[in-house]
Amino acid sequence: MDLSKSIPISKELNPNKRMHWTLILRASDTWCYTAKINHFKKGHAMNTNVTTSTLAKMKKDNVKITAMTAYDSPFAKMFDESGIDMILVGDSLGMVIQGGSSTLHVTMDEMLYHTKIVSRACKRAMVIGDMPFLSYQVSVEEAVKNAGRFLKEAGATAVKLEGGASVCDRIKAIATSGIPVQAHIGLTPQSVHQMGGFKVQRDEERLMNDAKAVQEAGAFSVVLEGIPSSIAKAITQALIIPTIGIGAGVDCDGQILVMHDMLGINSGHIPKFVKKYAHLGDEARKGIKTFISEVQSGAFPGSEHCY
């Protein structure tokens, strides 16, 4: 039973209080709203911008962080309005948007373009621009310059880069320049050839050292990808900064998925760690086939579609 529909809520209450009571009274959806209610109680109202301080407090208060990739305005707006905390404009667009076999060919200009249109659509979520291959590896100076472009030209709040101890000089320089940096360790797709493929990373000592190193260098958060759950849990407990998991188990401080996987848009291989929450690809194909059929039969356009 949806109690929020049966119990009137005074219009005299301010919007925040009304939202607060609505969330509490939705008894049938308690499991969905528990984290957001706690989030609200602890001063992180749904209508306030998510910042690095917000995320740090969420970790401290044991409130799970939600994150999603997005690459265009309509989906970014949808995620933002739904309450996603963090939107990553990932270089994964090289695979899910451009149809490539890896992310290595993605350019800075392409990343800036997609980050700009996502940033325009978001009012609350933190937008993070993913630094593509060779945009930060060449030199510290290039890394700072390219990171700054994400904020100046594309409207991002932060940047993400792959690597652990080996890129800490980049992380430190970028963070010192006033640009929030999210690190990314474990399975790092830009190193796919060096790793011999997209493989789960199991070297606990190296992963722990990398996690502590990026925190010390100034990263505000770290993505843990393709790591056994037990190792991800140990890293999460050892760090002050939030961990965002993708294929790293339930004990991370937050979770992120690629939108095309999560929404069932992709029809190819889906990683084990993905859960499909919708089947948009199937629905789209069904609609397209119906359109073709109705055009061929003359059923569309009907009189109601004509001027």
Structural key phrases:
eight-stranded parallel barrel, 13 helices, 43% helix, alpha/beta, 307 residues, 2 domains, 8 strands, TIM Barrel
Description:
This protein is α/β, with parallel strands linked by helices and 307 residues long. The protein folds into two domains: 1-48, no CATH class; 50-294, TIM Barrel, CATH 3.20.20. It is built from 13 helices and eight strands.
Please provide the ordered H/E string of secondary-structure elements.
HHHEHEHHEHEHEHHEHEEHH
Envelope shape: globular
Terminal Cα span:
45 Å
Q: Give the overall average pLDDT.
A: 89
- Full CATH superfamily name of the largest domain: Phosphoenolpyruvate-binding domains
Main pleated-sheet profile: 8 strands, parallel, barrel
The secondary-structure class comes to alpha/beta
| Overall helicity | 40-55%
- Count of folded domains: 2
Radius of gyration: 21 Å
CATH level 1 name of the largest domain: Alpha Beta
Q: Which stretches are low in confidence, meaning pLDDT under 50 for 5 or more residues running?
A: 1-43
CATH-defined fold name of the largest domain: TIM Barrel
User: Which strand order spans the largest sheet, edge to edge or round the barrel?
Assistant: 1-2-3-4-5-6-7-8
CATH-derived architecture of the largest domain: Alpha-Beta Barrel
How much of the polypeptide forms β-strand, as a percent range? 5-15%
Number of strands: 8
Tally of DSSP helical segments: 13
